[in-house]
Every structure is written in C-alpha cells, then in structure tokens.
Write a structure and sequence with these properties.
With 165 residues, the chain is of the alpha+beta class. It has one domain (9-158): Gcn5-related N-acetyltransferase (GNAT) (Aminopeptidase, 3-Layer(aba) Sandwich). Helix content is 37%, strand content 29%. It contains 4 helices and 7 strands. It has helices at 19-35, 41-62, 106-120, 135-141, and strands at residues 9-13, 67-73, 76-85, 90-97, 125-130, 145-150, 153-158. It has a 7-stranded mixed sheet, with helices on both faces. A hairpin with a 4-residue loop joins strand 3 and strand 4. Helix 1 packs across helix 2.
C-alpha cells in the first residue's frame, strides 16, 4: 500500500466553486451502476446530477448544522467529509475519497481524528454503510460494530472509547 505522509491531509469548508468537483466525486460513486444501464451519456449525467442534488438537499435538511469539508492532500482536492455533531452522537454523514487516492491512509487518518473527537466529548461515532461497500472492512478494523440494518444500509458504531484504542 502506497502511503502519503499523513501531515499532507487537511480539510477546508466546501465553497460554491467546489460544486463541479463534488458532482464528479459523486458521479464516481455511481460509475459502476451507470455502466449497467442502457442510457445515453446525457441521460446518465442528468440522472447523476439529479441524484447528487437530491442527496445534498437531504443532507442539508437532515443535518443543517453539519460540517461539509473538502479533503485536501497537499493542495489537491481528493474527497469530501460531511459530519453531523448531534446531541447524542457524532454522525459521519458521508466520507468519499476519489478512486485514485483510496487505500493510501486518507480515510483512516480522518476517521481516527473523528474517533479522537468523539472520545473527547464522550459520544459514539456512527455511519451508515452499504453492505457491499468495501469500506466496511476499514470501519470494522477501526473498531466499528454493526448495530442496525435497514435493507442494504448498515449502521456502524464506534462506541465511546478512549481515543485510538
């Protein structure tokens, strides 16, 4: 596994100018699915855009006070992190890293930061993960447990423990 120095990973709030990047990032998460449908590129793009907009609207409505950040590796945009800090938990609403940057420790680094934050405020850290998502292994390796299943979505929880244990 190639590893970039963790010191290069940072977050900054999403800005209006990030929209095209965020749409491309989201489209990357739907690429396999889109390859299976017999639609034109225009139809696929329109569908992905509508789904992206619906997701953003849902996140804003459901988690109005959540932080929505661009993940940077040095100065390059490599992903996004959406986190809701709720009264009883810290909820990872979404964490997505662009495909070429996956498996380089970026997600692990950010999750460990969130684990430390959750421990410092004595709250569990939670995320919904699709059952077929390869990141499920990462969450399990970091001590997240399956606590609920809703169809293909599994609620994973890192209980309130000491940081990085």
């Amino acid at each position: 596994m190639d590893s970039k120095p963790i010191a290069t990973i940072s977050l900054r709030p999403v800005e209006a100018a990030d929209e095209a990047f965020l749409i491309r990032l989201y489209a990357g998460t739907r690429a396999e699915e889109m390859a299976l449908v017999p639609w034109s590129e225009e139809q696929k793009n329109a569908f992905v855009l509508s789904q992206f907009q619906a997701q953003q609207q849902y996140y804003r409505k459901t988690y109005p006070d959540a932080s929505h950040d661009i993940i940077l590796s040095d100065v390059r945009k490599v992903g996004r992190l959406y986190v809701g800090r709720l009264p009883t938990e810290i909820r990872i609403v979404d964490i997505t890293v662009i495909s070429p940057e996956r498996n380089r420790g970026i997600g692990t680094h950010l999750l460990k930061r969130l684990m430390t934050e959750a421990a410092s405020v004595h709250k569990p850290l939670r995320i919904y993960v699709e059952s077929f998502n390869p990141s499920m292994r990462l969450f399990q390796r970091l001590g997240f447990l399956k606590v609920e299943e809703q169809g293909i979505h599994i609620l994973m929880e890192r209980p309130c423990l000491e940081p990085n244990k």
